[in-house]
Design goal:
Layout lengths: L5 H9 L5 E7 L5 E8 L9 E7 L8 H13 L4 E6 L3 H9 L3 E12 L15 E5 L6 H11 L11 H8 L9 E6 L7 E11 L9 E9 L8 H15 L4 E7 L3 H9 L3 E11 L2
Parallel strand pairs: 3-4, 9-10
Antiparallel strand pairs: 1-2, 2-3, 4-11, 5-10, 5-11, 6-7, 7-8, 8-9
Length: about 280
């Protein structure tokens, strides 16, 4: 498991919106033992404070996690606090439970092999729809609009801004050839974006010893639901990753999104790991 989310890593590198705080635990010699990132949002916000926390393996069992969590609670003031634990580890559950936290969200990581020959089969698209690669400088506005509509109820994905997208376009892993957009009509002449499948490639050591693909963002505009577009875009994205020589693909999905979990299981994905958001109400 990666110790921090991608969002946490990006904010460490580039900073984040107002209200973010970095909390570091060190030993007497200044050696880092643990780290937490807290997001409070805009001043006066009534929404839950959000955080994620990680403790170095050698520092576990020595009160480092407890000290970091207490500091997060202090910084959150009287607001409810949600803290992500990457990996559903017994020690994290014991610490959260002892301080009165309850499980608020569960994020599944699912994986499947990319060695099946049937992934090379063409995927049928709805009539009048074609797929082409994302074109930087042209497609950002359309993609952000559809992303917001497709993930209107998602607490993070649906609120992406142009800055969030630009940060990822600047990352070394970004490859527009693996960012597939489904259009009705000409995208340069008033065409309508219906959905997309943005794939990602993790280098060796990032998601395991070998490189791995990811179903990074798969989103369908609500107005295009029911056309079979999600299934077609999933197949096209997996076939793209297979052609790059990868042997495995992963994705993240909310555990309570029962239809999506069932769809992915029918597509050959199985549960691999779990992230848990623990919530402390006030």
């Amino acid at each position: 498991m990666r110790p921090l989310s991608e969002e946490g890593e990006l904010r460490l590198q580039h900073g984040g919106p107002p209200g973010g705080r970095d909390v570091l635990a060190t030993d007497a010699d200044g050696v880092p033992l643990g780290y937490a990132r807290l997001e409070l949002g805009e001043p006066g916000s009534a929404e839950d404070a959000e955080a994620e926390l990680v403790v170095a393996p050698a520092a576990r069992g020595r009160g480092t996690g407890r000290a970091l969590l207490a500091r997060l609670e202090e910084l959150a003031g009287g607001r409810p606090l949600r803290v992500w634990a990457h990996g559903d580890l017994p020690a994290a559950a014991a610490l959260a439970g002892a301080r009165g936290y309850t499980r608020a969200r569960v994020l599944l990581q699912m994986r499947r092999p990319l060695t099946d020959a049937d992934l090379d089969a063409p995927a049928p698209l709805p009539e009048g729809v074609h797929v082409e690669a994302f074109r930087p400088g042209r497609d950002e506005e359309a993609w952000l609009r559809v992303n917001a509509r497709a993930f209107a109820t998602h607490p993070e994905q649906g609120s992406w801004t142009a800055t969030d997208l630009a940060l990822r376009e600047a990352e070394p892993w970004f490859d527009p050839a693996g960012f597939l957009l489904a259009w009705r009509g000409d995208p340069a002449g008033g065409g309508t974006l219906l959905g997309s499948h943005w794939t990602k490639v993790h280098p060796p050591g990032d998601a395991g010893p070998d490189p791995a693909g990811e179903v990074y963002v798969l989103g369908i505009d609500p107005g295009a639901q029911g056309l079979g577009l999600g299934r077609a875009l999933t197949a096209l994205g997996l076939a793209h990753l297979r052609r790059t020589g990868l042997g495995q693909v992963l994705l993240y999905v909310e555990e309570d999104n029962v239809p999506a979990v069932a769809l992915y299981e029918r597509t050959g994905f199985t549960r691999f790991a779990v992230d848990v958001s623990w919530r402390l109400s006030r």
